[in-house]
Amino acid sequence: MFLDRRQTKKCVGLALVVLIVFVSTTPGFQQFFSIPKDIRMLNGAEKIWKIGMPATATAQVSDPEVVRINGNRSSTVPVDLNQPFKMHSAKKGQTTVRLKLFGALPIKTMNVRVIPELKVIPGGQSIGVKLRSEGMLVVGHHHVESDGKDISPGQAADIRVGDRLLKMNGVKLIKPEQVDGIVQQAGERDEDIDILLARGNKQLSVTLKPVRATESQVYRLGLYIRNATSGVGTLTFYDPEHRVYGALGHVISDTDTGEPIPAGGGKIVQSNVTAVEKGASGKPGEKRAIFFNEDEVLGNIEKNSRFGIFGKMTELPDHCYTDKAIPVGLMEDVKEGPAHIYTVVEGQRVEKYDIEIVNVIEQKYAATKGMIIKVTDERLLNKTGGIVQGMSGSPIIQDGKLVGAVTHVFVNDPTSGYGTFLEWMLQEAGIKLNEMDEKIGASPPDFFVEHLR
Questions:
Q1: Where in the numbering of this chain does the Peptidase S55 domain appear (predicted)?
Q2: Which residue of 64, 156, 296, 425 has the lowest C-beta tally within 10 Å?
Q3: Which of 126, 250, 254, 443 is catalytic?
Q4: pTM > 0.85: yes or no
């Protein structure tokens, strides 16, 4: 009898091992264990997992007022794992959901956080961008012929390309004209100029003396500087509650140095698309546009980050595809499949075009390349060849939610490119859905106005 019991236990144990090994290879088992440990949900949202396991379980919810399992308000809910497992968020808060196989064996613990639903108005409008840098950006050196010598005082003082001149003799530099006045005054008085400059994250002080050019008799520093850039992009979103906007989806960088331009101010205005240069393999296309009603400022520019430009906007610009706010989609809810974008390819008319999200890149930290998209709309392909310069910032909508923005085009395949998750753009605009670590750097610029000093 004793041996029979031992043999029976061995047989049962062996059978359980075989069953577990078999079940672990099934799609249902893999789907079950793909359910994340930490789950975020927008209030009112629902998540569904099709597990397909021929087993029963019990779901224990620490706070059933926050989430409900299969529509049940109870703290303990019987679950048939062969049927879809549904989790519905009922109110803001946190709760824990524990699954026990056959009501006894703990097999899954999920920490669920429900955050308030956020709605913003999707953009798509073509905008003119006028960005002013913080200080004067050094983009090159030149030699000044003076008293039979060729010299660059700036280069001799170790002022480098990429440095930003913040102050001269204590005066904060906002306009290039200020540099002219200070340089001429110091030269006429035969005085040095004390310069405070920024190099990367450091500030340095240097002293130099301007020299007088023999030909023009004008005092020079031997530096090429500029402080402004302008170009065309696309508005991504407008938040009417906080009165802020986000656009472009990528940083504006200097053409010569390749470095991001710290925003020292600026504005966005209306833009009218006059033509489109169609993209081809190896040659990205481009929107050609003119600024329109420049005196009518749509918003200011307070930040230029790797996720675009951001600032205040008092009201929704004209020519929007819709003036209704739509929900923001969390990055983990973005999936491979159909979606669409809003953008302008002619005049100021925003239109909707079909795309496919072909790959979603899981991100725990802020990064610009969150998804790979492909244009599938024949109208857009015939007009532009796919994604073109100036389309950056075009909002990406999936399942009625604003989930991201177009950022880059693949040079060898203009029908495809990258998109960034909207969450990162919202965070840059000062709207945080949740507290997450962030590591915020660089993409192609537009065009610039250069000054010779």
A1: 202-441
A2: 296
A3: 250
A4: no
